[in-house]
Amino acid sequence: MATAESSRTGGDEDVPPGLGWLDRIRARPGGRLTLRIVIGVLGAAMVVSGLIMVPFPGPGWLVVFAGLAVLATEFAWASRLLVFAKERVRAVTDWLKRQNLAVRVLAAVVTFACAAAIVWASVRLTLGVDILQKARELLAARASR
């Protein structure tokens, strides 16, 4: 029987006690689908925004992995992808640690060059500014002084 307290709190008489808040949401009719949609949208937004941030200074990959972790709470494919990504990152990191200094420096230079190319392309395509041309003009002006 519903009481004033249960109607104010949402009527938890049909939900078993001792469940976590996500389980209580899943136990309600429509709650599971609503939760999957909310988590799907939130996780996808985090992954996409993280991928956009990857070439720029900041926490790009951290946001991507956090978004995958959010998605993994509801989707098995995201959980498998997160495990796969963690294994690959760990394997590459371990491999790089075993290499000599020249290989590590080369990896850093290639990473920096890729990030610089992405930043250049992003600025060129979004703002229409060629930062390399601007840098050349600035250097030429300084050299002529």
Structure, described:
- By secondary structure, the protein is an all-alpha fold.
- The chain has helices spanning 4-9, 21-27, 31-53, 60-72, 76-98, 101-127, 131-143.
- Residues 1-8 have low confidence and may be disordered.
Topology of helices and strands:
Elements: H1 4-9, H2 21-27, H3 31-53, H4 60-72, H5 76-98, H6 101-127, H7 131-143
Helix pairs in contact: 2-3, 3-4, 4-5
**Straight-line N-to-C gap:** 88 Å
Strand percent estimate: under 5%
Helix count equals 7
Q: Percent of residues in helical segments?
A: over 70%
Stretches where pLDDT falls below 50 for ≥5 residues? Answer: 1-8
- What is the 3D shape? elongated
Quaternary organization: single chain
Rg over CA atoms: 25 Å
